[in-house]
Design a protein that fits this description.
The protein is of the alpha/beta class. The protein is about 35% helix and about 20% strand. The strands form 3 sheets. A 5-stranded mixed barrel has the order 6-7-8-10-9. Helix 6 runs parallel beside helix 7. It is globular, with a radius of gyration of 21 Å.
Length: about 300
Amino acid sequence: TSRDPENIINEIRSLVESGVREVTLLGQNVNSYGMKEGLCTFPELLRRINDIDGLLRIRFTTSHPKDLSENLIHAFKDLGKLCHHIHLPIQSGSNWILKRMNRKYTREIYLEKVDKLRNTCPDIAITSDIIVGFPGEKRTDFQETLDLIRTVEFDGLFAFKYSDRPNASAARFADKVTEDEKKQRLQKVLDLQDQFTTRKNKTLKDSIQSVLVEGFSKKQYQINEQNSSLDAQWTGRTSTNKIVNFYNSHDTGSCAENVMGRLVNVRILQTFSHSLWGEANGKEPISFGLRGEKSYVA
């Protein structure tokens, strides 16, 4: 059941008044919001949230490919506060397996929507889910999954081995994939995706990224425990959902409560598989813009 849009808008306004600067709209399939109840569409809801003063960023998860509309795709270009990241689960690159999963789209439809997203919003980051070893997945099906990963070049991927769930229709399939085979396939997916994630992150070296500060980095907590006088180290995320750890040599005395939820420009100095490292841009103390606290799910 979809929540009433006025209820959502009012809650977000209240959160913003308390200092929140980023919200994440959460649903099993946010793209189908309001369809059954005859409420406003999800793109319309995003546009209304985008108009809320004081809010800096909007995220949402998860999107079902079958319901990803043209209007939602264009929202990434039209709405200044909508982060340039979408999690779009594919699950398998094989049409045969997708049909068995009852996903109601094909790999061709999925790839077409990926193309539309990138044509509309060239810097958008696309992440996805993959399940390996679904009952009936032959080696040719698995190769089609690897081929799709190579074609899309995801920014990130969550990959899992299939396991039976009680009362699920797939649990009744007899043509199971062995555990050893599932482990091998999972590792191949992870190794392949790691190449693309690392390569994409490397392209960001020396770039300036706008980062919403979430607080001290994990390393900073270790430094605090050691009573070190090293520069303060912070962590946050880019619009494209990249984790950025950074320092500011001109600002060693700020406490996390004073800077969380603020935007800062960071020059990326090093890149890793799953994070970026940099320095707050400029020679003066950080200018953090609007003050905030932390992100909430609405």
